């Protein structure tokens, strides 16, 4: 089983997301993350789907998604070479033990501080899933109060595009 990313261009019509999600549900495939938004063209949305399946299942999923109504194009992205990011906001208890490490953490993980006061520090990190997981593991020692993640978004690297 390997993690794969599907990038899907769809027409902005009612029910397209439900049809895609329903396909995965009916086939018993698990979705790791599902992110979508209107593109620069308001008639078209781009949906990024992260899945963990074997190669045969991934090929089968791609072919079935391509057959759905309102699907314009489906691309299988390369997790090693394409641009894949996730956004996370992590609220950590503000404590004296954390404060001397904030500068190192922000530099090492390219993290921004969104909010800071005497009670909490809120970090914003945009990176790969693995880097975000690593950051969370480090700040867990300082008591994470809450966190939220967007799921994966991705583009093909270089001059390639969907």
Number of domains: 2
Beta-strand content estimate:
35-45%
CATH class of the largest domain: Alpha Beta
In CATH, the architecture of the largest domain is 2-Layer Sandwich
Q: Which class of secondary structure composition applies to the elements?
A: alpha+beta
Main pleated-sheet profile: 5 strands, antiparallel
Low-confidence stretches: none
Tell me the helix content. Answer: 25-40%
Instruction: Give helix and strand order, one letter per element, not per position.
Output: EHEEHEEHEEHEE
Which fold name corresponds to the CATH topology of the largest domain? Alpha-Beta Plaits
N/C terminus separation: 25 Å
Arithmetic mean of pLDDT:
92
How large, in whole angstroms, is the Cα Rg?
Answer: 18 Å
**Extended strand count:** 9
Overall geometry? elongated
How many helices? 4
Tell me the name of the CATH homologous superfamily of the largest domain.
Answer: ACT domain
Describe this structure in words.
The structure is a single chain. With 162 residues, the protein is α+β, with helices and mostly antiparallel strands. It folds into 2 domains: 2-77, 2-Layer Sandwich (Alpha-Beta Plaits); 83-154, Alpha-Beta Plaits, CATH 3.30.70. 27% of the residues lie in helices and 43% in strands. The protein is built from 4 helices and 9 strands. The strands form 2 sheets. Strands 5, 6, 7, 8 and 9 form a 5-stranded antiparallel beta sheet that branches. A 4-stranded antiparallel beta sheet has the order 2-3-1-4, with helices on one face. The longest helix has 12 residues, at 16-27. The model has no long low-confidence stretch (mean pLDDT 92).
């Amino acid at each position: 089983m390997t993690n794969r990313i599907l990038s899907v261009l769809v027409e902005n019509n009612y029910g397209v997301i439900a049809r895609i999600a329903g396909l995965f549900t009916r086939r018993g495939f698990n979705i790791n993350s599902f992110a979508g938004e209107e593109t620069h063209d308001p008639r078209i949305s781009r949906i990024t789907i992260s899945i963990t399946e074997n190669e045969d299942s991934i090929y089968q999923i791609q072919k079935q998604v391509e057959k759905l109504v309102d699907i314009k194009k489906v691309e299988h992205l390369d997790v090693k070479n394409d641009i894949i990011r996730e956004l996370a906001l992590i609220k950590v208890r503000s404590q004296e033990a954390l404060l001397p490490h904030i500068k190192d953490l922000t530099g090492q993980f390219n993290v921004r501080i969104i909010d800071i006061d005497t009670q909490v520090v809120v970090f914003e990190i945009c990176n790969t899933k693995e880097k975000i997981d690593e950051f969370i593991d480090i700040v867990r020692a300082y008591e994470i109060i809450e966190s939220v993640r967007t799921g994966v978004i991705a583009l093909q690297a270089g001059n390639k595009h969907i």
